[in-house]
Amino acid sequence: MHRIAVIPGDGIGPEVIEQGLRALSEVSRKFNLLLEFTQFPWGAEHYLKTGKPLPEDGLKQISDFEAVYVGAIGDPRVQTGVLERAIIGGLRWDLDLYVNLRPMKLYHEQHCPLKKIGPSDLDILVVRENTEDLYTGPSGFIKKYTEDEVAFGTAFYTRKGVERIIRYAFDQARKRRKKLTLCDKANAVQAHEIWRRVFSFVGQEYPDVTQETIYVDACAMALVRKPQQFDVIVTTNLFGDILTDLGSELCGGVGLAPSGNIHPGKFGFFEPIHGSAPKYAGKKKANPLGAILAGSMMLQYLGEEKGAQAIESAVTELLGTGKLKTLGTESEISTDQIGDLVLDALS
Ligand code: IPM
Ligand code: MG
C-alpha cells in the first residue's frame, strides 16, 4: 500500500489534480495497486482563514507519507511568494528534496513552435538542483522603504549539494542516450567554478557518458536552435527554473510538463511545472496533462513501473497520434474532457 498526501492547492490546482487522481485511480484498478490518498486543503484559503499557508506541523505530517502530489500554489489575494515559499519551498528545502527532475519531451511535431522538429529531436531531461542557489541563500533588505534601500540575495553552492546532483544526473544519462551537459554561467559568476570542477571530477567515474558544458545564455539559444544536441542537462536551481519553462513551451506548452522533487530513497513530491494561473481558475481551461504525467512520475518513484508506463503510454497515444491538436488555454477541449480522453486511452 502506498500512502500519498495530496495538496490540490490554489487556482487551477484542484481541477488538474482531480484529473490526475482519476488517471491514478484507473491504473490502480487495472494493475491492482493499493494507493491511499489523503487530502490537505493548504494554500490561499487556509492562509486567509488562519493566517498560515499550512499548519505549524504541516511538513512533519506530510513527511509521514511516501510521497505528495501537488496541484499548484499561489493566489493574487496573498502577497506574492508567501504561499509559494511556505508550501513549495518548505517541501523542497526542509525535506531536502535536492533533485528536481523535469523531462522535456515532444510527443508530436504539431505541438512544437519550432520548424521541422519532431519527437526524435526533442527528448531532454533537465536535472535541476533544488535546494540551494539564490532561492535559499541569505537575503534581505536594509533601510527598507527609504531612498537608501538595499535589497540583497546570495547564490551559494555547497560541495555536497553540487556533487550529489551531478552524480544523480550522470546516473540518469547512463540510462538514456549517455550524454550530460552542465549548464552554468562560469564565465561571469565566479562561484560557478565549483560546478565545473565537480563536474569533471565526478565525470571521471562516467567515461561512457559524453560530457559537455555550456553557459546558460548559450543554452537558451541552443534549446531553440538545435534541441537535438541535448540529452540530460544538469543545472543550478534558478537556471533550471527558467530553462524548463522555455523547454516545456517547445514541447507544446507549460501545461504539459510534469516535475518531480525527490530525495532518492526518502521522499518525493510531484507536481506539474505550471503555476496556479488564477485567471483560469474554475474555467476548466487548464490542460491537466502536466498533472497527469506528474502522477506517472510519482508511480515510477514508488516503484510501480507498469502503472507509470500505462499513463505515459496513454498520453503518448493521445498526443503522439495527433488526436489532440491544441493544448493551451485557447483549446476548445476542457480540462475534464482531456481527462476523459486519457481514461479512454488507459482502458
Ligand atoms: C517552479 C516554480 C517555483 C520555482 C516557484 C513557484 C517558487 O516556478 O517550480 O518552477 O521557482 O521553482
Ligand atoms: Mg518555474
Give an overview in words:
The model has no long low-confidence stretch (mean pLDDT 96). The protein is globular. The chain is α/β, with parallel strands linked by helices and 347 residues long. The strands form 2 sheets. Strands 2-1-3-12-11-4-5-10-8-9 form a 10-stranded mixed beta sheet, with helices on both faces. A two-stranded antiparallel sheet has the order 6-7. The protein folds into 2 domains: 1-97 and 257-347, Isopropylmalate Dehydrogenase, CATH 3.40.718; 123-250, Isopropylmalate Dehydrogenase (3-Layer(aba) Sandwich). Helices cover 40% and strands 20% of the residues. Helix 6 links the parallel strand 8 and strand 9 (210-215). It has helices at residues 13-31, 44-50, 58-63, 82-94, 159-175, 193-203, 216-225, 237-250, 289-301, 305-320, 335-346; strands spanning 2-9, 35-39, 67-72, 99-105, 123-129, 139-142, 150-153, 179-184, 210-215, 232-235, 258-263, 267-272. It contains 11 helices and 12 strands. The structure holds 3-isopropylmalic acid (IPM) and magnesium ion (MG). Residues 84, 88, 241, 273 line the site of 3-isopropylmalic acid (IPM).
